[in-house]
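Budget justification aside, the reviewers requested a transparent look at the raw inputs and outputs of the sequence design task funded under Objective 1. We therefore reproduce one unedited record. The lines immediately below are the structure tokens for a 319-residue chain.
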């Protein structure tokens, strides 16, 4: 049987595990909602349970697994194989996560942030396959970015390259989860879209369908769906978010002259309602020569991009 690798993913909304080879397909997977109050040790136990379940679903045994890749929803120190912090989950400052998992599974283990691994997944198996350079940006509960240059993850001097979510674009803008004002995450992420929708509803007398879900299930997905159906208030909120996001992407394109930007995450699932104004904003703010030639594409792998990227990184590290 072909060599298998286990991928573990710690995200803002779910914990997941997957098992697969280097063909870009998962043979088994398992996931649960991310617990909000559990300590890192308890999250590790949940991940190991998911890994065991994924291996069973793949009809495999652990002896066939050659390595583990971990995708973490926050910045990491790649060289030290530790987390740096997480703005959505408490207690994750300087956790030696790769060492902990390696000690439990007795397998070679690598750790990287979810945006870097999303970028690698798309480069190997998704929207960027066949190319050498791309920028991947994930827009969900937070905003992260990953760079693939010459076919490899570019991490920078302290493993923090691509952290566009906490780059300031409005110095007097709303407060971000990191404590500063005007970060891109505070302008264009899922939680910021939800905040802006609630504020707009409070100020407006319009009969928006969002009012019916305000106290129950209003989230960024509901806002995007209302925008897709033509709701004026929701369209205005999405337009504000994509304007700022377009500025951020244009800055990356201007600096690196990249041919491709892949957009992933839950908010990006809104389709043309999201991508049409986003592409217009990128062209508006990017240098004409770069903005016209760069492609802005949705993720092909969706939520599986970080998992498949983690498998790809584990396989590369095992060679």
């Amino acid at each position: 049987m072909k060599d298998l690798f286990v991928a573990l993913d710690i995200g803002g909304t779910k914990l997941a595990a997957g098992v697969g080879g280097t063909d870009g397909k998962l043979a088994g997977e398992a996931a649960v909602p991310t617990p909000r109050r559990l300590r890192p040790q308890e999250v590790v136990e949940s991940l190991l349970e998911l890994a065991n379940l994924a291996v069973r679903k793949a009809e495999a045994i652990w002896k066939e697994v050659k390595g583990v890749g971990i995708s973490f929803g926050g910045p990491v120190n790649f060289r030290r194989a530790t987390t740096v912090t997480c703005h959505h989950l408490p207690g994750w400052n300087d956790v030696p996560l790769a060492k902990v998992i390696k000690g439990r599974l007795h397998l070679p283990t690598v750790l990287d942030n979810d945006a870097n691994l999303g970028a690698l997944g798309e480069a190997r198996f998704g929207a960027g396959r066949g190319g050498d350079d791309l920028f991947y940006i994930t827009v969900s509960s937070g905003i992260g970015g990953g760079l693939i240059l010459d076919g490899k993850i570019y991490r920078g001097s302290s493993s923090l390259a691509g952290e566009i979510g906490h780059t300031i674009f409005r110095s007097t803008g709303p407060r971000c989860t990191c404590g500063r004002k005007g970060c891109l995450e505070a302008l264009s992420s899922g939680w910021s879209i939800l905040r802006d929708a609630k504020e707009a509803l409070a100020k407006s007398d319009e009969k928006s369908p969002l009012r019916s879900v305000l106290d129950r299930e209003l989230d960024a997905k509901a806002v995007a769906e209302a925008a897709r159906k033509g709701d004026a208030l929701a369209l205005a909120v999405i337009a504000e978010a994509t304007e700022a996001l377009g500025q951020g992407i244009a800055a990356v394109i201007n600096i690196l002259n990249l041919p491709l930007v892949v957009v992933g995450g839950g908010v990006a699932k809104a389709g043309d309602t999201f991508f049409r104004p986003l592409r217009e904003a990128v062209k508006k703010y990017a240098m004409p020569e770069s903005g016209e030639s760069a492609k802005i594409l949705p993720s092909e792998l969706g939520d599986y991009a970080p998992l498949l990227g983690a498998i790809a990184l584990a396989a590369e590290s095992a060679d």
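The two ends are 17 Å apart (CA to CA). Residues 4-121+303-318 form a domain with the Nucleotidyltransferase; domain 5 fold (CATH 3.30.420.40). Computational costs for records of this kind are itemized in the attached budget.
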